[in-house]
Amino acid sequence: MSNNEHSNGPSRESTIIAEARRARELREQGYREQALKLFPPVCGRCGREFEGKKLKELTVHHKNHNHDDNPLDGSNWELLCLYCHDNEHQKDQLEGTKAPDADKNSLVTHQPFANLRDLLKEKK
Ligand SMILES: [Zn+2]
Ligand SMILES: [Zn+2]
């Protein structure tokens, strides 16, 4: 029926990206819940408390900026409200091109998807 013979199924690349994104979202939910169990629902910067509906304004920040670094003891996590989280990342941008630890890590480990992860992380 189809006269569109030269489209060989779905684009492999976009499938991989969609899957990586979904995996990342699942993982984010996972470590967020874990972090909320470990820490009181308080922003680590402004000290505001979050509960009920407001809880979704509290986000998990990765201290070393590596979203793949999720030790279950929470040593790489910090709970920050959306505003403080934004500030935290803007501060890094203002500080310039100082390479964060995350970059060093991806140079050392040879992961085929390291670049993909870099592209996907912190896209706002
Ligand atoms: Zn805050
Ligand atoms: Zn962050």
How would you concisely characterize the structure shown here?
This protein is mostly helical. It is built from 4 helices and 2 strands; from the N terminus they run H-E-E-H-H-H.
Could you please describe the fold and organization of this structure?
The protein has helices at 12-38, 82-94, 101-108, 114-120, and strands at residues 58-62, 77-81. It is elongated. Helix content is 44%, strand content 8%. With 124 residues, it is mainly α. The protein has a two-stranded antiparallel sheet with strand order 1-2. The protein has one domain. The protein has four helices and two strands; from the N terminus they run H-E-E-H-H-H. Residues 61-62, 85, 88-89 line the site of one zinc ion.
Q: How many angstroms does the end-to-end distance come to?
A: 41 Å
Integer tally of domains: 1
Helical amount among residues, as a percent range? 40-55%
Strand content: 5-15%
User: Based on DSSP secondary structure assignment, what is the total number of beta strands?
Assistant: 2
Helices, by number, come to 4
Alpha carbon gyration radius: 18 Å
Structural class: mainly alpha
Question: Sheet with the most strands?
Answer: 2 strands, antiparallel
Quick tags:
4 helices, 8% strand, single chain, binds zinc ion, 2 strands, 124 residues, elongated
